Amino acid sequence: MDIPGSFPFIVSTPAQRRTRAQNRQIKSHAAKAGNPCSRLRKSSTRSPSRRYHAMRSGDKTHEHASQLVVVPTLGPGPELTEVPGLAFSAALTPLLLYNLGKFFSCLSIKMYPERLCTEADSEDVHWVGTMFHNQMYFHSVVSASEAFFNTPGEGTRHLKSQHHSLMALQLLQNKVSKEDITDSASDTTIMSVLLLAVAADMADDLPTVDRHLRGLKRMIDMRGGFQLLQTEVPDLLAKICRIDLALAVRTWRDPVFFHDSISWTPYLLSNCRRSGESDAVQTGLALWIGTLDYRLRIVREDLVEFCSMSNSASQRNQKLPRSTFSEILLSLIYRLLNLSFELDSAEETIRLGMLAYTSTMFLQWHNHMVEFYHLRCMLGATLRNLDNENLGASLPVQLWLFFAWHMLQPPECEYRQLDIWLERLLCAGGLSAWSEVRQLLRSTAWIDYINGVDGEKVYNRTMMKVSQP
Description:
By secondary structure, the protein is mainly alpha-helical. Helix content is 63%, strand content 0%. Helix 6 packs across helix 8 (135-148) and helix 21 (434-442) crosses helix 22 (448-467). The longest helix has 24 residues, at 155-178. The protein starts with 19 loop residues before the first helix and ends with a helix.
């Protein structure tokens, strides 16, 4: 039975030669079907930038909006490279857009522990979508992306990062010279300078990071400062503070932000009793903590409460909001940097220990290990010169200080000098299993998911030395 308007099948095998009538039928079928490439180009005539503006002006939810922004990375080549109205459309190749999308995804994962923090809601709407309609921001993103994926010894990505950084700076200078100074401090400009600071941080160009941060401070001050700054860009202020703190810890200088106005009010409500702790541990800790400076006690209680909250959430398969995770750690590190005590005192030792623990948790990129050289040397020297009797701390606190120092990834030549003290502490406490050590660490400030693997490696290495004759 023939279906009207259908094509009859042309049956042939490689061993057979087609007749003239069959060849004419094939040509007729091809003419009726049309050019497939032309149909592919006609399937969508809207450019990525038009999609983005339609998304922003429509009634789509943020979830659908972020999907619309990501669509171009999977689209056909002609649509990606022919973006009407963009002077830099030739640079938007499918491979580049894929890498940029991967960069934002990896950046988000590296900043927040996956098992502890919730996933991003709609960051792509601002952080990714802005690339399609702002050339300055586009070059800043490419610069940060190339620096992020750069590996030691690979010069190509480093050169690309520098090139796009210079392009973004040139556009920024043109923008400032042509516009009113207050109008130049827009969200997009702040995002661009922040990503330039991220690129410089990845390249270990700390003087450039400092210049970008001071430029960000001037722009934020123009808009009323952090307290009055209103922005729709998610996580923008947290990312700025994170770069600021990383630079301060690496260079051992005052942070650019919040170095003269700090609140010493407890950030978290404290539960005095921790589950699983004995009365002896509680009593010993309470007596020792009471001898510390009151500001240091407040910061320590917030840290202990945060670790307890994180362990509880991980055990229950629950997650903390990213804003909560970043706000707590930002509050802890800013306050620790604003404290200072006499060298080799108990307060200074505890301050450096907490600073080491929080910095490795929040200020590392994980794929690009940042070396906090000054902090590691100061804490190591304090632990070597400090007599345990003068410290006056209980066994859990002493153990925690050594493990916090090891989280800074010291080289072998340094940790060999302190392993003798750690061996004595483990033997004095009769600790023959990692589970026992972990329980004592959790009574101070310890998150199993983040620090458990590294802590167990330190314990096993130390116990191997103890067991050797």
